[in-house]
Write a structure and sequence with these properties.
Helix content is 81%, strand content 0%. By secondary structure, the chain is mostly helical.
């Protein structure tokens, strides 16, 4: 069944209330599942380190680059497929793959086998976000898009919360292998819900933008299709790079995520080593904080961006720049303390501010891109973000921690996380520059479409 035939019942004007927002809620649930399965490794690292006797550098590779290379790279061809095929079916297939491979992690007998299973998780998750971003952009107008993307982004924090709370309890009582099975298998239910209860929205309808011709029939020879795909990919790269605000958004998003992934993956290990907490305590205290507070911050950031941008569109990006500058002193206080009565309140406030960036960043990239390029534009953005941020953020923290261990001993991880946190100021500068040209770039896209 093609996009055109399934789209007939999905026109936004024909829906209201829960029916209109159900697809967004279901996509958010799928995104939550992806971050549970992606992030569960974080709470399990101390146990995996003990089982396989590996260094922080190898743990950084497992949590970052091993996953990111396949996740980022395969996102591009899958997004090309999504810009031409049925996005709902692609997402359902992706959820099935990453859920099954997460469960397979629990059966790994060696560190190498675990790494291979994590590659499988990355392959599955490559098919989720680009088509989801594209679908959400076809369900909500640009005036509501930051909020909608922020709601979708709650999946990052809800997934982190579930991974930390459930993972912390299960690993404490049943071991890390059982934890992978517990969090992986429920994703198969979500995959079925996506496939059988959600419809495909029409492309470009809600923005009043025409959808360009695809350039080749899906039944064309493989060489013709490959040429169309490569030309399309090049056009998206050129479009994003030549659009000044899009270029700065992607750079800023990558820098913020570089810090975030390093802290997310090594955070539980930091709390265990420097504060002496067990995995259940870490999961309960910081999982609930990250989930509820971070999720709230994502929604607040999206709402503020939509609200403030009604009068001045530059605030779509400037909201993030301000949050990053205000949050930097909180990082300093957090990593300089070992008193939970100080660290937890600071962590709460910094988590709210730290989550502002997701919804507006995703929404701005979609709003700056023609409808027929949106899934691929999202994939290109995620390729840069994940290859650099997820691939090298945790690895950098691990390398720094190992390098600083002779000087700082058990506190080497604290200092590694502290030093990398200053990259957030660099990110704020790019979001400020993005805001300066955002409105002009939106007008330029409208003129090109006309």
């Amino acid at each position: 069944m093609t996009d055109q035939t399934t789209a007939a019942t999905a026109t936004p004007e024909r829906r209201s209330g829960f029916a209109r927002h159900y697809p967004l809620l279901l996509l958010t649930l799928a995104y939550t599942s992806s971050h549970v399965d992606r992030g569960i490794i974080n709470i399990l690292m101390p146990s995996i380190k003990e089982t396989f006797q590996v260094s922080d550098t190898l743990l950084g590779l497992l949590g970052g680059l091993v996953f990111a290379v396949f996740y980022a790279t395969l996102g591009v061809p899958i997004a090309m497929w999504a810009d031409r095929g049925n996005r709902r079916n692609i997402i359902a297939l992706a959820v099935t793959v990453w859920s099954g491979m997460t469960a397979a992690c629990g059966m790994a007998g060696t560190f190498g086998q675990l790494a291979l299973a994590r590659i499988g998780v990355g392959i599955g998750e490559a098919g989720s976000s680009p088509p989801s971003h594209s679908m959400i952009s076809d369900m909500y107008p640009k005036e509501q898009r930051s909020t909608a993307m922020a709601v979708y982004s709650v999946g990052v924090y809800a997934g982190a919360m579930i991974g930390l709370v459930v993972g912390g309890y299960v690993v404490q009582h049943y071991g890390w292998r059982a934890t992978f099975l517990v969090v992986g298998l429920p994703g198969l239910i979500i995959a079925a819900l996506v496939r059988f209860t959600m419809a495909e929205p029409p492309r470009g309808h809600i923005d009043g933008l025409p959808v360009a011709a695809l350039g080749a029939s899906p039944n064309a020879p493989a060489t013709s299709l490959l040429k169309v795909y490569l030309v399309g990919l090049w056009k998206v790269f050129v479009h994003l790079w030549s659009t000044r605000s899009a270029r700065h958004i992607i750079i800023g998003l990558t820098l913020v995520s570089f810090v975030g992934y390093g802290g997310l993956i090594f955070g539980p290990s930091f709390f265990a080593r420097s504060l002496g907490l067990n995995m259940s305590e870490i999961g309960l205290i910081f999982g609930l904080t990250a989930g509820f507070v971070g999720g709230s911050g994502a929604v607040i950031g999206g709402y503020l961006a939509d609200r403030l941008s009604r009068k001045d569109m530059r605030w779509n990006a400037w909201v993030i720049a301000v949050a990053k500058i205000v949050g930097m002193p909180l990082f300093i206080i957090f990593y300089m303390s070992s008193d939970l009565t100080i660290m937890i309140p600071v962590y709460i406030v910094s988590s709210v501010l730290g989550a502002f960036y997701l919804g507006p960043s995703f929404a701005m990239i979609q709003s700056l891109t023609p409808p027929h390029m949106r899934a691929l534009a999202s994939a290109v953005m995620l390729f840069v973000l994940n290859f650099i941020a997820l691939g090298f953020g945790p690895l950098t923290v691990g390398l720094l921690s190992d390098a600083l261990e002779p000087t700082f001993g058990v506190e080497s991880l604290r200092w590694a996380l502290f030093f990398t946190s200053f990259i957030g100021v660099w990110a704020a500068v790019h979001y400020y520059w993005a805001g300066q040209t955002y409105q002009a770039d939106i007008e330029k896209l409208k003129q090109q479409a006309a």
